[in-house]
Amino acid sequence: MRPLIVIGNWKMNGSLASNASWIKTVCRGMEQGMPAGRQYSVCVPAPYLSQCHGLIQECSLAFMSLGAQDVSAYTAGAYTGEISAAMLKELGCTYVIVGHSERRQFHHESDGLVAEKALQVLDNGMTPVICVGESADERNSGREIEVVRGQISKQVAVLQDRLADCLIAYEPVWAIGTGKFASAQVAQDMHRAIRLQLAEFDEDVASHVGILYGGSVKPDNAVELFAMPDIDGGLIGGASLNPQDFLAICQA
Ligand SMILES: O=C[C@H](O)COP(=O)(O)O
C-alpha cells in the first residue's frame, strides 16, 4: 500500500517572517489531527532551509518534513552557486525536487542531468521527486504519452531498481500555475501509463513508486484527484503559499 504524500513547493517565494508564520499555522492545524498514514512536506528556497528545518523540528510532527527544490548533479568542488545533496541532507531535507519543468525550461536541464541529480539525492539518503510532464503543444498534437515515456525511460536507464525509492511527479506544463488542471481522469490515465511503463522494467518497482500529480491543485479539486487509484498525492505550487489552502489539500 503506497502512502498518500502531499508536498508543497513554494518556488521562489517566502521571507523569514512569512515562513515562520506559515509553519506555525500549518503545524497548529496539523496538531488538530490529520488523516492517518499520510506524509507531508514543504520544499522551500535554499536560503530558508535552515530556518524552516528548525521550525518544523519544533513542531515534532512525525509526518511533516522539509524538502528542497533542486540539487547539484556534482558531489563537491568548484561549482560556484551549486548546492550538494550532502548539504541538503545536513540541513534536514527529506525530499528533493529534481527536473521541475521550470528548471527544464529556464535552465535547460536534460533528462540525463535530472537522473544524475536523482542519484545524488538517493546516495545521500533522501527521496528525489522526479518531475515529468508534457507541454500544451505536445498534448494538443497527441504526443503526451510519447513525451512522458521518453522522460521516464531515461530515469529507468540510469536509476534502475533505485527508482523504487523515488517519487515521480506528473506535472503537465500547461497546468502549472495556469488554473487549468488535468481532470482526475486525464491525470489518472497518465499516472497509469507511467506505472505500466515502469512495470515493463520491473513490476515490483512499479507497484512501489509513488506518483504525485502537480498542476493547479486546489482544495476543491484535490479530493477527486487523490481518490484515483494511481494518484498517490500531490506536488502543490501556488496553493501551498496559503497555509489554510495547503492544510485543506493535506486533509483532502
Ligand atoms: O511544483 C509545483 C507545480 O509546479 C505546480 O504548481 P501550481 O500548483 O502553482 O500549478
UniProtKB/TrEMBL annotation:
One annotated GO biological process: gluconeogenesis
Pathway assigned in UniProt: Carbohydrate biosynthesis; gluconeogenesis; Carbohydrate degradation; glycolysis; D-glyceraldehyde 3-phosphate from glycerone phosphate: step 1/1; Carbohydrate metabolism; erythritol degradation
EC number from the UniProt entry: 5.3.1.1
Enzyme class: isomerase
Gene Ontology annotations for the cellular component aspect, listed alphabetically: cytosol
Active-site positions on this chain: H100 (electrophile), E171 (proton acceptor)
Protein name per Swiss-Prot or TrEMBL: Triosephosphate isomerase
Keyword entries, A-Z: Cytoplasm, Gluconeogenesis, Glycolysis, Isomerase
Catalytic activity: D-glyceraldehyde 3-phosphate = dihydroxyacetone phosphate
InterPro entries: Aldolase_TIM (IPR013785), TIM_sf (IPR035990), TrioseP_Isoase_bac/euk (IPR022896), Triosephosphate_isomerase (IPR000652), Triosephosphate_isomerase_AS (IPR020861)
Coarse class of the protein's main subcellular location: cytoplasm
Role description: Involved in the gluconeogenesis. Catalyzes stereospecifically the conversion of dihydroxyacetone phosphate (DHAP) to D-glyceraldehyde-3-phosphate (G3P).
